[in-house]
Specification:
- This protein is of the alpha+beta class.
- It has two domains: about 220 residues, Rossmann fold, CATH 3.40.50; about 110 residues, Nucleic acid-binding proteins (OB fold (Dihydrolipoamide Acetyltransferase, E2P), Beta Barrel), CATH 2.40.50.
- The protein is about 25% helix and about 35% strand.
- The strands form four sheets. Strands 6-7-8-3-9-10 form a six-stranded mixed beta sheet, with helices on both faces. It has a five-stranded antiparallel beta sheet with strand order 13-12-11-14-20. Strands 15-19-16-17-18 form a five-stranded antiparallel beta sheet, with no helix packed on it.
- α2 crosses α3, α2 runs parallel beside α4 and α3 crosses α4.
- The two termini are about 30 Å apart.
- The relative contact order is 0.12.
């Protein structure tokens, strides 16, 4: 078994049958050389899982393997794992070079060799010439690159990220997630990545594990989770989906208000939930599709955001048609495209 393997992991805080269960019998694998994102809302257990991979928490029961070696009871120093924290945790009184070399020096490497490897690590993250600067003299994105170089210089078997982009603005978040993904692929790193941001998870991952109250709600590729959610929870969490009640007929078609659609996967006849993402709606002339009245409109430069009143309630729509902007109060119709629509059985 290579990469990271969790087998039937349980994490309970406290003693006795009433003690809080943070992780409830979780099993998964992060294949060697791939990036898996553990995604979910606050309190779902994702950070606890990351800390158990690092050895900062020990499981109550179950087994943890890294590169085929059981590490369940080993401490962080015995696991060959590096972790990059949300706060970066840089030493403010040390230069950039000394921050990156710190872990090597603590492991017994002599100063000259440690500094030479640190210089190479800084080159790898695009920080040539920043050796003698203090962290306070760097931007947020540059500080994050220093923290990444400090993690990479140790040549870990596994690299862990705990909400690494949450302190950055939108443009820097996009740049850094691209950089992290490029480095991971170029160096063949095994990475476990924790975030609550769905777009971030979709952008960087080979595999996404969606957590819900200490259990795995669904695991799969970004495309699988986005296009084929297994439950209402996953459908609502993966992107800004609106869950609407529908009815599946015996022939497999689904009635959604005035609309009739053919799901891409078969569902049992009866009540279903249809998860519709804002980009799936098509605005058509009045008299076609489902009747709708425009109540709100916002121009965002590249798209228009609409809110329509319909028989199904308020519908949020993202339209790329900037040339045909509708005025508030306009009557129109709504139909559905094929992308961004998922059907799940009600109650799942």
């Amino acid at each position: 078994m290579s990469g990271i393997v969790f087998k039937d992991i349980v994490k309970r805080y406290g003693d006795g049958p009433g003690a809080a269960l943070a992780v409830k019998g979780v099993s998964f694998q992060v294949p060697k050389g791939t990036l898996t994102t553990i995604l979910g809302p606050s309190g779902c257990g994702k950070t606890t899982i990351l800390r158990m991979i690092a050895g900062l928490e020990l499981p109550t029961s179950g087994q943890v393997f890294i590169d085929g070696r059981e590490v369940t009871t080993l401490g962080p120093a015995e696991r060959n794992v590096s972790m990059m924290f949300q706060s970066y945790a840089l030493f403010p009184h040390m230069s950039v070079l000394d921050n990156v070399a710190y872990g090597l020096r603590m492991s017994g490497q002599d100063k000259a060799a440690a500094r030479a490897r640190a210089v190479e690590a800084l080159r790898g993250v695009g920080l040539v010439g920043y050796d003698e600067r203090l962290p306070s003299e760097l931007s947020g994105g540059q500080q994050q690159r220093v923290a990444l170089a400090r993690a990479l210089v140790l040549e870990p078997a596994v690299l862990l990220f705990d909400e690494p982009l949450s302190n950055l603005d939108a443009r820097l978040r996009r740049e850094m997630r691209e950089e992290i993904r490029a480095l991971q692929q170029r160096l063949g790193l095994t990475v476990a990545y924790v975030t609550h941001d769905q777009s971030e998870a979709l952008a960087v991952s080979d595999q996404i594990i969606v957590m819900d109250h200490g259990v795995i709600a669904q695991a799969g590729t970004p495309q699988e989770l986005y296009e084929h959610p297994a439950s209402e929870f996953v459908a609502g969490f993966m992107g800004e989906a609106l869950l609407l009640p529908g009815t599946a007929a015996a022939d497999g078609r689904v009635q959604l208000g005035a609309l009739n659609l053919q799901p891409r996967r078969a569902v049992s006849p009866g009540a279903v939930k249809v998860a519709v993402r804002p980009e799936a709606w098509r605005v058509v002339p009045e008299g076609q599709g489902m009747p709708a009245v425009l109540r709100k409109s916002a121009y965002l430069g590249s798209v228009l955001e609409y809110t329509f009143d319909t028989e199904l309630g308020a519908i949020f729509v993202v339209s790329p048609d900037l040339q045909a902007a509708l005025p508030v109060g306009a009557r129109a119709g709504l139909t559905l495209g094929s992308h961004g629509v998922s059907v799940v059985e009600a109650g799942r």
